[in-house]
Every structure is written in C-alpha cells, then in structure tokens.
Write a structure and sequence with these properties.
Pfam families: DUF6384. It is built from six helices and no strands. The protein is mostly helical and 151 residues long.
C-alpha cells in the first residue's frame, strides 16, 4: 500500500529503486555503444576535394546535356529555315541549309580583331582615359614647374 505522502501527490523522500536500475542500464548501454572515430570524419581539404569531384561531374553532365541540346537546336533551326524558305519562295535544299548551319556553328564562338580605324582608336582612348588624363596632368605639372622655376 502506498504511503500517505505518495497518495497526496507529494514526492517520497525515499528514492525509487527502479530509477537507479534504469539509470545504470542506460550508462552501461552508452559505455557499450561505439564511439565515433574522429579520424573517420573528413577534413576540410578532403571535403573540398569531394566537392570538386561533384562539381566536375555536374559540369560534365551539363556538357553532355548541351551536346544533346545542340542537336535539337540544329534540327529546330533547319526546320525554321526550311519553313522560311518555303514562305519566301526560295528553292533551297536541305543540304544547302545544313551547310549554312555548319558554317554558322563553326564561326559562332570565334573572335576576330576589330578593324583598325578612328572608332577603334577612340574606344581604346575611352578605356585608357584615366591613365591618359593622369599622364597629361603629370606632363602639365612638370611643364608648369619648369616654367615657374626657370622661366
């Protein structure tokens, strides 16, 4: 029969023996549990290497998808050019359109130097404007100093 204190809802001053048994079993289970080996965790350098490999795999997958996309783009471009040729009344064969597409794709991402001329010169002057202005200011200051001291 429970004590009067337990019936009243007050904690007993005597400890519960089941609590100690449960606590003892829990500490024994923790002692038997395998501890994580700190050497098995990846270092920062290893983590970065793994991330580099993952990024490289993603880029290769994107390149492969782009190659498949390129074939689809060529086909869509060929169909569009054929429709345009039919609408305009031009008699163009598929071989001619394929040759035009091949020529376009070969020169699509090539760089050609701009033609020399006044516009090109002005563009270079605009890009180098800070250096040109500082040089002119230095020359003007030097000329002014020489004129002031020796003139």
């Amino acid at each position: 029969m429970p004590s009067a204190r337990a019936r009243a809802g007050k904690p007993s001053s005597r400890p519960n023996p089941f609590w100690y048994v449960a606590r003892l079993q829990m500490s024994q289970a923790q002692a038997r549990a395998p501890r994580p080996d700190l050497r098995s965790e990846l270092t920062l350098e290893e983590t970065l290497r793994v991330m580099d490999v993952a990024r490289e795999m993603r880029e290769q997958r994107q390149a492969a998808e782009e190659m498949f996309h390129r074939d689809d783009m060529r086909k869509a471009l060929r169909d569009k050019l054929m429709r345009t040729a039919r609408l305009s009344g031009d008699s163009v064969t598929e071989q001619e359109i394929d040759a035009a597409i091949d020529q376009y794709m070969e020169t699509r991402y090539t760089y050609e130097d701009p033609k020399a001329g006044f516009k090109n010169f002005m563009a270079h002057c605009w890009v180098w404007r800070d250096r040109i202005l500082f040089s002119l200011a230095g020359l003007a200051a030097t000329a002014g100093g020489l004129w002031y001291f020796f003139g």
